[in-house]
Amino acid sequence: MMAELAERLGKVDLRISDATVLLLVADRADMTSSEIGKMLDIQRANMVPLLNRLEASGLIRREPIDRKSQAIVLTDEGRKRLIDVRRITETFEADLLARIPDEHRDHFVPALQALIG
Description:
The chain has 117 residues and is mostly helical. It has six helices and three strands, in the order H-H-E-H-H-E-E-H-H. A hairpin with a 5-residue loop joins strand 2 (60-64) and strand 3.
């Protein structure tokens, strides 16, 4: 399942972790790299190269918040790529849901939402 999503995102030169960061940064203003790492349970050693890759691709930039902190924000290119990410993930979710027989869908989605919390 995740391999299928990874393949779809790969067509727009993104990894699942890249797409997740773009979605999170789009929804929450002025997040720092440490806040993103905590929310996504990504260790600092993995977070730095991930953000560096997104920055090198022109999808994010770092903006100073204060002397110690930097906010991670989407660039114009990042916002354009976010449109692709949302389209791909929405299509992927719809395709997954279509695999569930109709008689089980009414119970599956609420059960899944209860698990996620």
